[in-house]
Amino acid sequence: MRRLWNKAQANLGFVPNVFRAQALNGEQFLAWWGYFNLLLNKEGFLTVAERELLAVVVSSLNRCVYCAVSHGAALREATGDARTADGAAVNWRQAALSPREQAMCAYAEKLTLRPAEMTEADLAPLRGEGLSDAQILELVQVVGMFNLTNRVSSALGFVPNAEYHVMGR
């Protein structure tokens, strides 16, 4: 865990509060971090910006302040577009998103708010925008990860680091 904290300090200039809060159970934190890191920080089937957009939209829908702010910062950095990133964090429908991004956000919204209503027909707009099965699976995994992470962060009252508020601006 110390190596992870040192790496965060070197890369970000601070240790994210989520690391500090979850360090109470190091083994569980490292298991969560391994999957989180695999989904968000490694090369994947979706772009970094697309994965961060999904993180922001899901976190906004769940009203998870920590994740909406921290991943809003990551989305601003990934896109260089603070206006669109901030818009997506409040109401993705009013943000300047591409048709592909809109389809992804609509799917993420339904999966987050009404998972029992999901059907195979919900995949058609994603496929219509050219998403492959591997990209759709990654989208579902990112949405699932953030639904889990949002609940933990909100339940424990995680507070975003002040540094997130100025990143990418």
Automatic annotation (TrEMBL):
Signal peptide: none annotated. Residues 29-109 form the Carboxymuconolactone decarboxylase-like domain. Keywords: Oxidoreductase, Peroxidase. One of its GO terms (molecular function) is peroxiredoxin activity. InterPro entries: AhpD-like, AhpD_core, CMD-like, Uncharacterised_peroxidase-rel. Pfam families: CMD. This is Putative peroxidase-related protein. It comes from Deinococcus gobiensis (strain DSM 21396 / JCM 16679 / CGMCC 1.7299 / I-0).
